[in-house]
Write a structure and sequence with these properties.
- The complex is a heterodimer of chains A (554) and B (282).
- With 554 residues, chain A is an alpha/beta fold.
- Chain A is built from 24 helices and 13 strands.
- In chain A, the strands form 3 sheets. Chain A has a 6-stranded mixed sheet, with helices on both faces. A 4-stranded parallel sheet of chain A has the order 7-6-5-8, with helices on both faces. A 3-stranded mixed sheet of chain A has the order 2-1-3, covered by helices on one side.
- In chain A, a hairpin with a 5-residue loop joins strand 11 and strand 12.
- In chain A, helix 1 crosses helix 2, helix 2 packs antiparallel against helix 3 and helix 11 crosses helix 13.
- The longest helix of chain A is centred in the first third of the chain and has 17 residues.
- With 282 residues, chain B is α+β, with helices and mostly antiparallel strands.
- Chain B has a domain of 139 residues: ADC-like domains (N-terminal domain of TfIIb), CATH 2.20.25.
- The radius of gyration of chain B is 21 Å and the shape is globular.
- The chains are: A alpha/beta (554), B alpha+beta (282).
- At the A-B interface, helix 3, helix 4, helix 20, helix 21 and helix 22 of A face helix 2 and strand 7 of B.
Chain lengths: 554, 282
């Protein structure tokens, strides 16, 4: 391609970082050269990590090496909030002022930062609602520190399955993972063969845990049956729904389990190449997963002959860069392909035409984490847990006005009240005002919903959603109007901007809410739900509408 | 051939057609803003949405391919509501003064952009005038992506501009917003040719409008063949007071598909470089 660049030149240091990043990602990919545009995000990350921003010269050089026009690459870089295109400090504190942190004293953190002289900025939910108010220090430069290990998370529930190893073993040790049952499921999977694995998953009636609740077995069977090759597997770890931190805990505390689960899913669907896309605000999770992949590969559990079975699989870690929308599966494809993370129209559906236009299986982290259990115990046995319509256990992220915020694993069918009791109830003798189920795209329910069983079918009947497992509590002192405004601001900030109903509708929704023009809020909500391209715009009014329906806010 | 039903009427169209094609074959006038026959549909404006039985959300007529036995409704209250809201969103945030199609649709759907408060957020910003040939007034931009497509793989393959930023702050930009002369722009003007709102405009038209002298009623349009090379592009010369004020090419022209190069688009000064010429814009 004949590309034109401005006269801005990269420094020698910038060129070295970009050259090294290109070598690195190609080595990680098992040395198989492919076209280059899909390396845009890793290369931009490398520049950002080393210099704290992406200069015009560095962008030009990256464009030359990737054969991408500079205007195009600038469009990509400016899409992501963690990539900066103006000169910036090497150390920036990201202060979460999203809904869980807002009720937990985020304003005091903001006030402290304002007086500190440190570089800081406000951030949407950082996925650390269990330790609200949360901050994330993002460091750049050659001297930057590796991601710090945080205090172990609060984990609760009875008869833990997905969380049985979390916090109990060294997450960096393959030996410990194997000593605690790891890789028994993959061995069993190779004995079963792809078709019987798919059959067991089907029998398990497992539904996706990312929010959309699609039958996992159906998706797997569809990808496996596609004649077009190659097939791709993507583990969607772009967990960004406000209030959600379950995938972070799984990835940080039991990363080998996700690598093993991905290996099973890939084998069952004929994928030889997989990506795990981890949100940019989860550096520790990304480091631990990368370590797990490297160790598994060294032990022959990934690579050209997995466990001596003849099956091949490479897994590549991709880091997001600050964009909620990239959790939408088609936006995620574009992000991996080195484009702006704008959703695509469906159809075609990912199982037919997904990443690089090929059949693609996309599953949430928690969904995949169920596969080893299903393979080991059989789908029918798995389905005995929970209810007929909602099988298995479920991870719930408890945050807000609750005594013991943390990650709780319970069988589907436990009531909302029982789950809250497990986490110690509302502290300080206060009265519960509202519970947000499913995150910013979810539903507010009033205390009368405490008797609701936590299943897909009960939630649907109550016009609610379990979404990504968010259970955020608000006591009588919470300013619900402020919470609703923050949710509206979240969607305004996170809209990709592609379609008019969402790009402008989210702005108008926030404005109308401020003016308390509720008739207009309703009209805007209907248009966003009906006419937006993707789930972000289609659900951007959900929480606000449910608050009007279920809570006596105004 | 594919059989489907639109607004209760059966219709048969070739496989691969869009719902928009099928609507057009029935004589249904579907509003579109980001759609153009010569470009890949991006279905971003959503003004063409229709109701499709079995689909939870509305679907874009311009991009959705027909399938056998589809049941489509194009004028239901849901469709009218979404179209009206989309037009209100645009009219309340973008200057549509030079966008006749959008304004016509606003009238048709009863859009009332005044009901969004005293000071709704808009994309108002200064006009970019950084070269002699055309101006960019992004206060008039509805972000339809057409200019990016025409500059890129759908026509020119120059890639001088792209969508940058995100959400309401998304905008069309060169890298780091450098002026056009520093960018990859080759001044083919194909972005102007596809712009539906006048955000991209010939400098000559912009200047006449600024002086209040732009008058389409007094303009003639004359088709000719470009004399610069052997390709034989059809040019449409827009002439006001015996001076060429703009050059376009018919989109249905088999040679150009509506696109030109810098010479055909802007190389007309020599025609009117006459010592006694007083009518030409300076």
């Amino acid at each position: 391609m004949d590309l034109h660049f401005t006269s801005a030149r990269a420094s020698a240091a910038e060129r070295a970082v970009i050259d090294a990043a290109l070598r690195q990602v190609q080595d990680d990919a098992g040395g198989r050269p492919r076209s280059r545009r899909h390396l845009a995000l890793p290369v931009l990350h490398a520049v950002q990590d080393n210099f704290g921003w992406i200069s015009a010269g560095a962008l030009n050089y990256a464009g030359e090496r990737l054969a991408v026009a500079p205007a195009d690459l600038y469009g990509v870089a400016t899409f992501y909030k963690l990539l900066r295109t103006t000169e910036s400090p090497l150390r920036i504190v990201h202060v979460c002022d999203d809904i869980a942190c807002l009720s937990a004293g985020a304003q005091q953190v903001v006030a402290a930062m304002e007086g500190s002289g440190a570089a800081w900025e406000r951030s949407p939910c950082l996925g650390q609602c269990d330790r609200a108010p949360a901050t994330l220090v993002v460091e750049a430069g050659a001297q930057r520190n590796p991601p710090a290990a945080a205090a172990p998370p609060v984990i609760g529930g009875s008869n833990l399955r997905l969380l049985r190893r979390a916090g109990k073993i060294d997450p960096e040790s393959l030996d410990e993972y194997r000593a605690h049952g790891g890789y028994a499921a993959l061995r069993a999977a190779f004995t079963l063969g792809p078709q019987r694995i798919a059959g067991e998953v089907d029998a398990s009636k497992l539904l996706g845990r990312g929010g959309a609740a699609f039958p996992t077995g159906r998706k797997m069977a569809a990808v496996a049956a596609e004649p077009s090759r190659p097939h791709y597997l993507i583990c969607n770890a772009d967990e960004s729904e406000p209030g959600t931190f379950k995938d972070r805990v799984l990835l940080e505390q039991d990363p080998f389990a996700i690598v093993e689960a991905m290996t099973i899913a890939a084998y069952a669907t004929g994928c030889e190449y997989a990506f795990i896309y981890i949100r940019g605000e989860y550096p520790l999770a990304a480091a631990r997963v990368a370590n797990a992949i490297a160790r598994a590969r060294a032990a022959g559990l990934l690579g050209d002959d997995v466990m001596g079975s003849g099956a091949r699989l490479e897994i590549e870690v991709r880091r997001g860069a600050g964009a909620y929308i990239c959790g939408e599966e088609t936006a995620l494809f574009n992000s991996i392909e080195g484009k702006r993370g704008e959703p695509r129209s469906k159809p075609p559906f990912p199982v037919q035409s997904g990443l690089f236009g090929k059949p693609t299986l996309v599953n949430n982290v928690e969904t995949l984490a169920n596969l080893p259990l299903i393979v080991l115990e059989g789908g029918a046995e798995f389905a005995r847990i929970g209810t007929p319509g909602s099988t298995g256990t479920r991870l719930f992220c408890l945050s807000g006005a609750v005594a013991k915020p943390g990650l709780y694993e319970v069988p589907h069918g436990v009531t909302l009240g029982e789950l809250i009791e497990l986490a110690g109830g509302v502290p300080r003798g206060r009265r519960l005002q509202a519970v947000l189920l499913g995150g910013a795209a979810g539903t507010f329910v009033a205390p009368d919903a405490l008797t609701m069983r936590l299943t897909f079918e009960d939630a649907r009947a109550a016009r609610a959603t379990l979404g990504s497992g968010v259970v955020m509590l608000f006591d009588e002192t919470a300013d619900m109007v402020a919470i609703l405004r923050r949710i509206a601001a979240f969607f305004r900030d996170e809209s990709c901007g592609q379609c008019v109903p969402c790009r402008i509708g989210t702005v108008r929704q926030a404005e109308a809410l401020r003016r308390r023009d509720f008739a207009l809020v309703d009209e805007i909500g209907r248009a966003m739900r009906d006419a937006s391209i993707c789930g972000l715009g289609q659900t951007a009014a959900n929480a606000i509408e449910s608050a009007r329906r279920n809570l006596n806010v105004w | 051939m594919v059989d489907l039903t639109i607004d209760g009427a059966p219709v048969r169209v070739p496989e691969g057609s869009t719902i928009l094609d099928a609507c057009t074959s029935l004589g249904i006038d579907t509003p579109t803003l980001c759609f153009l026959e010569s470009l890949t549909p991006v279905n971003a404006c959503r003004v063409c949405v229709v109701e499709l039985e079995s689909s939870r959300a509305l679907v874009p007529a311009c991009a959705r391919r027909v399938e056998p036995a589809m049941v489509v409704t194009t004028d239901s209250p849901r469709v009218r509501h979404s179209r009206k809201m989309v037009l209100e969103f645009l009219a309340s945030s973008v200057d549509l003064s030079t966008a006749p199609d959008a304004r016509r649709y606003c009238d048709r759907y009863g859009a009332d952009p005044g009901r969004y408060g005293a000071a709704p957020e808009t994309v108002a910003q200064p006009v970019k005038i950084d070269n002699a040939l055309y101006v960019r007034d992004y206060a008039k931009c509805i972000l339809c992506y057409k200019c990016v497509e025409a500059c890129g793989a759908d026509a020119q393959n120059t890639f001088a501009i792209a969508v940058a930023g995100r959400g309401f702050d998304a905008r069309i930009s060169t890298e780091y917003d450098v002026p056009l002369p520093d960018s990859a722009c080759v001044y083919c003007g194909n972005c102007i040719g596809v712009c539906p709102t006048g955000a991209l405009m010939f400098a000559s038209e912009h200047e006449l409008r600024r002086r209040g002298e732009w008058n389409e009623a007094r303009q003639t349009r004359t088709d000719t063949i470009c004399s610069y090379c052997g390709v034989g592009c059809t040019l449409t010369l827009h002439v006001q007071e015996n001076a060429i004020v703009k050059v376009t090419s018919p989109i249905e022209n088999s040679v150009t598909g509506g696109h030109l190069c810098v010479k055909g688009r802007f190389g007309f000064e020599y025609v009117q470089n006459r010592p006694d010429d007083e009518g030409a814009p300076s």
